[in-house]
From TrEMBL:
Listed transmembrane segments: 71-96, 108-125, 158-191
Name the UniProt record assigns to this protein: DUF4112 domain-containing protein
Domain of life: Bacteria
Signal sequence region: none
Source taxonomy: Bacteria, Pseudomonadati, Myxococcota, Polyangia, Polyangiales
Presence of the UniProt keyword Transport in the record: no
Keyword Zinc: no
Keyword line: Membrane, Transmembrane, Transmembrane helix
Matches recorded under PANTHER family: MEMBRANE PROTEINS, PH DOMAIN PROTEIN
InterPro entries in alphabetical order: DUF4112
Pfam families (UniProt xref): DUF4112
Length: 197
């Protein structure tokens, strides 16, 4: 029954969005109520992405959810960070599209920076990711501050998003270099010691 109600609510929301878009195309001004209803639904892929990254698995018997980031990170160091980096970039671009104010973009950037710095520490970073869900936090920031119809992204917004993209890339590259670079270096030195070459 709950699923039926969710589907019914989605149909009503979709109809309101279609009507709102038709009125915009026709040049009419939207009422505040219709504008609010039309803009309430954020890109559906964003919620699915965040749920996938931060809350995919539930620990049986608890209300604790784990995302694929820490799980994959424990199994293949660096791989979880690559997945999170992709999510971070996607959410930053969504925030830019949704006209999130610069100060909110800076808060999102701070979340990415914290995740990047702590996530660079093998295994400890993956444990940290179970509790500090940067993508979930950033999606909530987008929901809270989005859709100012008069706002247009400025140079500062693009700079903040660019810095976020660089941080997200660093969040992938740093753990990979640490884990695989140092790990292979240690194995090479062990091999040289054993073989005497």
């Amino acid at each position: 029954m709950e699923r039926h109600l969710d589907e019914h609510a989605k149909r009503i929301t979709d109809r309101a969005v279609d009507e709102a878009l038709a009125r915009i195309d026709g040049g009419d001004q939207l009422s505040p109520e219709l504008r609010k209803l039309a803009t309430q639904q954020l890109a559906p892929w964003a919620e699915k992405l965040v749920r996938f990254l931060d809350e995919t698995l539930r620990i049986p018997g608890t209300n604790i959810h784990l995302g694929l980031d820490p799980v994959i990170g424990f199994l293949i160091p660096g791989a979880g960070d690559a997945i999170t980096s992709t999510g971070s970039v996607s959410l930053l671009l969504l925030a830019l599209k949704e006209r999130v104010p610069t100060i909110a973009l800076l808060r999102m950037l701070l979340n990415i920076a914290i995740d990047t710095v702590v996530g660079a520490i093998p295994f400890l970073g993956d444990a940290f990711d179970m509790f500090f869900r940067s993508n979930r936090r950033n999606l909530e920031i987008i929901r809270k501050y989005r859709d100012d119809p008069k706002a247009k992204p400025g140079a500062a917004d693009y700079l903040v998003v660019g810095a976020g993209v660089l941080l997200a890339i660093a969040g992938f590259v740093i753990p990979v270099v640490i884990v695989y670079g140092v790990g292979f270096g240690v194995l090479y030195e062990l091999w040289r010691t054993i073989t005497g070459s």
